[in-house]
Amino acid sequence: MTDNVNKSRRNLLMGTSAVGVIGAGFAAVPFIKSWLPSERAKAAGSPVKTDISKIEPGQMINVLWRGQPVFIVNRTEKQTAVLDSLDDRLKDPNDETSIQPDFIDSKFRAKRQNLLVVIGICTHLGCSPKYYPDLVPQSFDSEWQGGFYCPCHNSRFDISGRVYKGSPASRNLDIPPYTFLDENIIEIGTDGGTA
Question: Which family does it belong to (predicted)?
Fold first, then answer.
């Protein structure tokens, strides 16, 4: 009789232990999943794909990446033709203090000469500059050659996002990593494999 009681107890304990282990596993899954980033957090840092095929020459679109506005400008030949003439008016025409990927050159600051991609936040105090594409005198610059003007503290940037001398902004507009997936799609947040 003792063997039957011990076997019953043993079976009861084994069954209870098995249920307890399975229950602990089910309880642990939500707890462990809570350590993973949320979909919203993943999306906040994820690369962003944008169709650039409909951006007309001279036009700018605004894309949101990591909570920051990114300006994509389809520059005209007339706009880029003036870049060489501006070097003596700029603080950093050669991008020595710029925050940008390695593939950026100092004149066009782009993978494609016509397509500028910059973070639309002034490098002074974080306001968002406005796009002034026309090469005509403006109230803030009688020799304006197109570009960006930040009305918060009067920082001016040329059509490549390079900061003018006399502006409170300390450096050129930042350039995010980006790559072209094909002729019409740009991905902001990667530069060919790295995020």
Answer: Belongs to the Rieske iron-sulfur protein family.
137 CB-near residues (< 8 Å, 6+ apart): 143, 144
142 bridge partner residues? none
| CA gap 53, 188 in Å, rounded | 15
Q: Give the tokens for residue 138.
A: 């403006």
Average pLDDT rounded to a whole number, residues 59-66: 96
Is the CB of residue 161 less than 8 Å from the CB of residue 117?
no
The answer to whether residues 70 and 117 touch, using CB atoms and an 8 Å cutoff, is: yes
* Cα–Cα distance, 102 to 17 (Å, whole number): 59
How many structural domains does the chain have? 2
In-domain check, residue 193: no
59: which 2 tokens? 């036009």
**pTM, rounded to two decimals:** 0.75
Whether 7 and 68 map to the same domain: the answer is: no
